[in-house]
């Protein structure tokens, strides 16, 4: 599958879980992938190695997306190393679950700064390049928690709801320059983040899902690919053909 042959993609939080699956899917479609991480450097290197084993190109960039200057500098390096930027999947995020009355300010701040401000930092840095090119695709990973809320996740739900509004506004700003901005709001996906949930909480969540199972990274990867027109036709053919 080479529908993105030569295109440059950045996947934040690409070292594991949803980000890893998306990075490998983009690489499989021919994209040259920048995998970003904050702490999981070894895991990110393994993703880059897997991309190279597939015959593609993967490079690791370690920085904190909550840091405005570090993010701007990292995207400058990516643009210089790869010669441009065509796709951003803004996926990196954290949780610090706690009931509101017990939540510490630090637990609120790190989630909002990473999830919401980090999305701003990455989108702004990517948009500057894409506007000059007059082309680009941005996909922001939000969450169903931002639409419905979850007990013990006021910080996470607020950050993800903010991404929804942010994406809608930015889409209107960038569309005239042929840059699309979309959001994907997964429910519970079977990843490292959800596997650490207590059994009682997992069962309570499953009872709210009609199919009685968590989503998979493979399904989410296909949803994200839908927003990349050059990949869309072959994916729909595989799904429904």
Automatic annotation (TrEMBL):
It comes from the Eukaryota. GO terms for biological process: lipid metabolic process; monocarboxylic acid metabolic process. GO terms for molecular function: 3-oxoacyl-[acyl-carrier-protein] reductase (NADPH) activity. Its EC number is 1.1.1.100. It is an enzyme of class 1 (oxidoreductase). NCBIfam families: PRK12826.1-2 (NF009466). This is 3-oxoacyl-[acyl-carrier-protein] reductase.
């Amino acid at each position: 599958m080479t529908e993105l042959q030569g295109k440059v993609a950045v996947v934040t939080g690409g070292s594991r879980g949803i980000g890893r699956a998306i990075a490998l899917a983009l690489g499989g479609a021919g994209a040259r992938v920048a995998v970003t991480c904050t702490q999981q450097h070894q895991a990110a290197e393994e993703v880059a190695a897997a991309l190279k084993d597939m015959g593609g190109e993967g490079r690791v960039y370690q920085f904190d997306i909550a840091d405005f200057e570090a993010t701007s500098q990292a995207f400058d390096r990516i643009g210089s190393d790869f010669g441009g930027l065509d796709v951003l999947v803004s996926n990196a995020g954290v949780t610090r679950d706690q009931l509101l009355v017990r939540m510490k300010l630090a637990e609120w701040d790190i989630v909002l700064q990473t999830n919401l401000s980090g999305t701003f930092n990455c989108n702004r840095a990517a948009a500057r390049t894409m506007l000059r090119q007059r082309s680009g695709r941005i996909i922001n990973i939000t969450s169903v928690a931002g639409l419905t809320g979850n007990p013990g996740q006021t910080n996470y739900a607020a950050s993800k709801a903010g991404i929804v509004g942010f994406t809608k506004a930015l889409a209107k700003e960038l569309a005239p320059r042929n840059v699309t901005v979309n959001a994907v709001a997964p429910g519970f996906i079977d990843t490292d983040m959800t596997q650490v949930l207590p059994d009682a909480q997992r069962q309570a969540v499953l009872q709210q899902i009609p199919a009685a199972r968590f989503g998979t990274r493979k399904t989410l990867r296909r949803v994200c690919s839908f927003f990349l027109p050059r990949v869309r036709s072959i994916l729909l053919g595989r799904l429904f053909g």
